[in-house]
Structures are given as C-alpha cells and as structure tokens.
C-alpha cells in the first residue's frame, strides 16, 4: 500500500469516534480512507481499511445484542446502527472484487443478507411496523439470532481476528440483567394472584437469550466458577420450562436460583 492505514486518517477523530461508539462518524472516516487507499490493494482481504470496516460491522452486531439484552426491543438505536453496518457491508463488497478475495467476499455477502433481513423485518411503513416497540418476543428472537449469526460468520472467516470474545464478567453481567428482566415480567402479588398479567413470552425470551452467554461462560478458560455456572445453566433451563407452563412459583424460584449463582460469583450489579 502507498500509505499506512493510520496515515490515511491522520488528523481525524476516527479513533475517538470508534471509542465513543459513534458509528456514523466512524463510517464517514473509513469511507474517506477507502477513497485514498492504494487501488492495487483495495481487494485484499487483509487490507487494513477492509478489516476496519469488518470490525465496525462486528461492533455494531455486538452493540445490537447488548442493547437487546437490556431492553428486549428493537429500537431506533438498532435502526441507526444497522444502517451504518449495511453501508459498511456495501462498501466492502465494492472493494472485495479480486479473485483472491472471493472467499471473504462470499462471507460478506452472507453478512449483508442478514443485515438486510433485519432491516426488512423491522422496516417502517410495513405490516411489521408494530414490531418496533414494544417488540414481540418472536421478533426479538429473530433480531438476536441474526445479530449472533453475523458475528459467527465473521468469526469463521479470514477476518476472525476482528471478533473479540466477551469477558467472563461481561457475560455474567448481561446474564444477570436478562434474568432480572425475566423476573420483572413475571407478576405475582400476594399468593401469585396477579400472575395472569405476567408477560410469560417476554420473560421466556430473556431466559432463552441468556443461555448462549452461560454456555460461553462454561467454556471460558478463565472460568473459576464451574459449579455455579453449571447450576445456573440448569436453573435457566428449568425456568424456561416453568415459564412455558405459566407456572408462577416455579418460574420465580428457578430465575431466583440462577441469579443467586451470578451473585455468588461476585458479579451481580442488579440484585434486589
């Protein structure tokens, strides 16, 4: 390349915009770097500009997951960030047009398909406009599955280095948040008299969404809590079964048991 990647963005606030999660500004600077890049190397799978674009897509997919873990809804934040990811994928596809880049190009095509599937599913002005807020649990499942799939496609590609695993603590805190959300959607009152007003499907979504993170925790080489992790996984499975049966007592007991394991690990910040 005629210029190193840092040189292409010298004097800009690209690094700061990435650190702040300002994906629109980050993409604008990357688009600028893409124009200044060496034409002979624009199609290289390991081109720093291409890797930065892929990293941006991964970061947006991860951000979308994290936001969903907290609120359970597809929001305008998702729409804004996914718009940036779709543009980044389009720019990548326009650059990865060399024969030796075909494999990574095919993977970006797959990523682009998942991004557009989300965009179409939640588009305004369609029959699915009512899925925007509050989001039906089935639609939240659709969103989460596609975001996770985007990340996994890139993790299995030549650009796998752009995908950084969550830390054990980060996973534990996300799990705690989702379990707390599940508990909040199971209403009881004295003797469980108000359980008929519980949002069972919403609670079940949060419990299901926690499962992949718990699995990642169990496989983490830094896992110092194998017993608690296993107990938590079992409690979440039991909670999902109880939620499916609209069993107030069983749901509350198993969700509380799972959260107790997070607390014993020393990571819970939502206990109450």
Major sheet: none
Unreliable runs, pLDDT <50, ≥5 residues?
125-131
How large, in whole angstroms, is the Cα Rg? 21 Å
Number of helical segments?
Answer: 11
Say what oligomer this is. single chain
Core attributes:
11 helices; mainly alpha; 272 residues; Four Helix Bundle (Hemerythrin (Met), subunit A); 2 domains; elongated
Describe the structure in your own words.
With 272 residues, the chain is mainly alpha-helical. It folds into 2 domains: 5-162, no CATH class; 168-265, Four Helix Bundle (Hemerythrin (Met), subunit A) (Up-down Bundle). Helix content is 67%, strand content 0%. It contains 11 helices and no strands. Helix 3 packs antiparallel against helix 4.
What is the topology?
Blueprint: H1 5-8, H2 14-19, H3 23-36, H4 48-71, H5 76-95, H6 102-121, H7 137-155, H8 168-184, H9 200-219, H10 226-244, H11 248-265
Structure in a nutshell:
By secondary structure, the chain is mostly helical.
